[in-house]
Fold Phosphomethylpyrimidine synthase.
Amino acid sequence: MVPPAQNVQNARKIYLTGSRPDIRVPMREVPLTDGSSVVLYDTSGPYTDPEYDADPAKGLPPLRSAWRRTGETLACGGTESCGGTLPKPVRHTQLARARRGEITPEMEFVALREGVAAEFVRDEIARGRAVLPVNVNHPESEPMIIGRNFLVKVNANIGNSAVSSSIEEEVEKMRWATRWGADTIMDLSTGKRIHETREWILRNSPVPVGTVPIYQALEKVGGKPEALSWEVFRETVIEQCEQGVDYMTVHAGVRLAYVPLTANRKTGIVSRGGSILAAWCLAHHAENFIYTNFAELCEILAAYDVTFSLGDGLRPGSIYDANDEAQFAELRTLGELTHVAWEHDCQVMIEGPGHVPMHKIKENVDLQMELCSEAPFYTLGPLTTDIAPGYDHITSAIGAAMIGWYGTAMLCYVTPKEHLGLPDRDDVKAGVIAYKIAAHAADLAKGHPGAQAWDDALSQARFEFRWEDQFNLSLDPETARSFHDETMPAAPAKTAHFCSMCGPHFCSMRITQDVRAYAERNGLTDTEAIEAGMRAKAEEFRKEGGKVYLPMPSPPGEE
Ligand code: IRN
Ligand code: FE2
């Protein structure tokens, strides 16, 4: 079912060790031919460690179980007297601990992973500007952080439906997505074997796993939204908390009064969860039961340290509907709920659109930051145009790059199959790669310290015709190598000082290097060399009769 070790071409798995030996932070080291190396962030988990022998039936080693504090009550009912006032529950979420000034092993782990101070991580979590999703029941995951002062993260949605794909395929999609760089995955399975699928994914996932519990709740009541109730939803949430889900999308902001605001939209309500809750509200003419029971929901999530992902059930599903009243009314409610979650020591992030043209993207970020007091923003794209079904990883990566630059902390990928079908393995890869590009482009634009080192290393390799280094440093080494092989398959071409795009005579990089070498030989500055070189070339050109096209030499390796 799953292929053996997914080794990343020619890269080495290394670990940075923290203050205790079991804080081992995975990194990907790319050795270069000049003897140096570049160390990259790595999300692939133990699968890319040659020492690790994966057995999906056993699951990953429970990396974090030893980090539980001794005597820690998890589903905490305990109280502590606080200075003579009312007793206050002592909670153990990362947020509660950060607020108490504690640097947890998880915080230390992400500090090493991001190359920042642990105190900075603690402070960002304490003020709610970052979340560290770690369900106490998912000890297999490697801690990561979502917040705008850290690297921009990417989520990949996987999950089967009643009509397609098996559990094995979903586990493999999870491994595949993280191998290409997905920082979290969401299991959006529907259909009969929801619980079992999730169990396999959780036990084998090295990254946090998110879900949308209303999907399973709906299965439990036979697929009829009006048959849902707070009780069924609550029970489903607890079941998923027990299993180890790290964050949950809850569409608590779809309030009864907002549903009519979608009446004049071009595409109505496009969120699955949003439409289920809107249908319930209308059927009962009652307020959304997640909204009315939100404080109790906070108590449940806090007990496991499950992070809220406040869903955007009223996000626009078309360019026409972007930034409308329904969308922003919901966002205001999400702002209100953010504060309720924080009062309960719950970590919280906010979901965002959807379909938004480029000129309307910034307003989304500005409003979200203001209304949700800087809680991390987590957006789906947005798609910047509706005209390209089959290419929506591109229409949306454009929006994702922009919204990431403006401060969105995590980007939910969109695959080429969006609006058309369920993504297969290739679509998952296309989606993740498109989003890694968007996220990294945003990191660069934000001036994230260290982000540019990767680009600089690759550019240097390109300029010096170190082809192997250029491939190995690529986001997708396999594709880079195979494209080069298509036109220049021979081994010498991997050291050639040109490629098949411009050929030997028109390679700008080679010409620049010639200019530099000429300058050095003749003791000139680059500018003088260019002038001198130009004069010499002009003479040569005239002598040869002014022909622009010279006969091609034979390809390398055939001479
Ligand atoms: C992310 C931002 N806005 C929406 N999302 C994702 O969409 C969310 O995290 C989850 O993966 C999916 C939920 O879709 P519905 O139920 O809102 O359509
Ligand atoms: Fe859409």
User: Anything to note?
Assistant: The longest strand covers residues 24-31. The two ends are 46 Å apart (CA to CA). Confidence is low (pLDDT under 50) at residues 1-6, 70-84. Residues 157, 186, 188, 212, 249, 271-274, 309, 311-313, 351-352, 378-380, 412 surround IRN (ligand 1) (CB under 6 Å).
